[in-house]
Amino acid sequence: DTGVSQNPRHKITKRGQNVTFRCDPISEHNRLYWYRQTLGQGPEFLTYFQNEAQLEKSRLLSDRFSAERPKGSFSTLEIQRTEQGDSAMYLCASIAGGSKGYTFGSGTRLTVV
Amino acid sequence: GENVEQHPSTLSVQEGDSAVIKCTYSDSASNYFPWYKQELGKRPQLIIDIRSNVGEKKDQRIAVTLNKTAKHFSLHITETQPEDSAVYFCAASKGTDSWGKLQFGAGTQVVVTP
Lengths: 113, 114
Hints:
The structure holds 2 protein chains of 2 kinds. Chain A contains no helices and 11 strands. By secondary structure, chain A is an all-beta fold.
């Protein structure tokens, strides 16, 4: 287990299409976060899971966004009916209680054309 | 909710000089303040953090100071080297430990010129 893995690394999609991203956290990390980062900005919180339970969703997350972590291991983030404003880097991070900070994945860069 | 402001947005320094980045936060309940370094095309990585019960923390060439009364904290990099060139983000959290939701600043692009 070498870190947080995200797939795909890049995704180009047409406006109106649905996309799904996957995050595989570090195996012993029970908390998993999704953030979105646009150019020139810091990461923005989207949602997080404690094991399989989704404990908080940002108000920024419209009904078109949904996230799951079915068995408390990997997580998926789905965006339905994509819009150009959804273009961003989607970052996943995981952390275990008492550990030293998040470990981020390399992100999925979404471009909506 | 929490709002974190970060200044400056860009910082150019000569190799060997010091760099200072400042952040302010709005929520007095915030109690954990990490700093992340993000090199071009790479993931953010934690470089140092500080909790609200500590005023200063140092790790080799980097240090962070916290003023809870004024609600601001700063990152200090001494003897800068070209490999310090990156975007640095401050963040704040109300979590009781280091694993809470983070509110990030907008970032500071640091360029170290040889």
